[in-house]
Specification:
Structural class: mainly alpha
Number of strands: 0
Strand content: under 5%
Number of helices: 7
Number of domains: 1
Order of helices and strands: HHHHHHH
């Protein structure tokens, strides 16, 4: 029996294909905005609220009795935040290698050089700030961090915190945040500024002057990351500063 001719295949115009691609791209971009917000909220919302509240109310947290158990709770929060980051990267078909995390023998020497560069930049800024502040107010600024009593006595949870915190901060607020914002906005400058501002903001509980000093260090770390595309030297340099601060307080 003679079969009627099959209908011609449906054709799709080039304009329609472009429209669909744009729609998928817009959807992917919106989802990655939401995922960026989720990771940053889980990781830093609590610290940011406490930091701003402490600064606004001129509160002193030293009398709150921060115990090893509370430090351990902070470690759990950081590990959980990293787990959320790993899941988001997995859902996007990426890994931490896409954030610049891989191992190379030169990362050790590079991290030492980066730490020295950060220290020198911090020192130069402190000299400038000290002179400017004294001329403006008639007395020198107080750059001593406040509310750091939780690192003034030895605890194993404190050791774990020192080991975990550089990975937590640098992978999320530096590597992931800068990478995502560069992709979402097309602006490296905006990504670096946003990263430095957020990281400095949740250190405001230690005081405005210490937070400003930290911002210079964070800026050096961000510039190196953008220039090199590698995050491990930054993690190691961050670890040196944390370890020196904590162990000197324990002594």
């Amino acid at each position: 029996m003679h079969q009627p001719p099959a209908p011609p295949p449906e054709t799709t115009s080039a304009a329609a294909l472009v429209s669909r691609a744009d729609s998928r791209g817009a959807s992917s971009k919106s989802l990655r905005w939401m995922e960026l917000g989720l990771v940053l909220f889980v990781a830093f919302a609590q610290s940011l609220v406490i930091s701003i509240y402490t600064l606004a109310r001129s509160s002193d947290l030293s009398g709150t009795g921060v115990s090893p158990v509370r430090i351990l709770a902070g470690v759990i929060l950081e590990v959980g935040s990293l787990a959320v980051l790993f899941y988001v990267l997995f859902r996007q078909g990426r890994t931490v290698k896409d954030l610049g995390l891989n191992f190379h023998w030169a990362d050790g020497p590079r991290s030492v050089g980066l730490a020295m560069a950060g220290f020198m930049a911090n020192y130069v800024f402190w000299v400038f700030l000290w002179s400017f502040y004294r001329k403006l107010t008639g007395h020198p600024p107080d750059g001593t961090p406040r509310n750091v009593e939780f690192v003034r006595s030895f605890s194993w949870s404190g050791v774990v915190l020192v080991l975990i915190n550089p990975w937590f901060e640098e992978l999320i607020v530096r590597a992931y945040m800068i990478t995502e914002l560069r992709w979402l906005t097309g602006s490296t400058l905006l990504a670096v500024i946003a990263s430095v501002v957020l990281q400095s903001s949740y250190h405001l509980y230690q005081g405005v002057i210490p937070a400003l000093l930290y911002s210079v260090l964070f800026l050096v770390f961000s510039i190196y990351y953008v220039w090199s595309g590698r995050i491990l030297p930054v993690i190691l340099a961050h670890f040196y500063f944390d370890a020196i601060a904590v162990f000197s307080n324990w002594r």
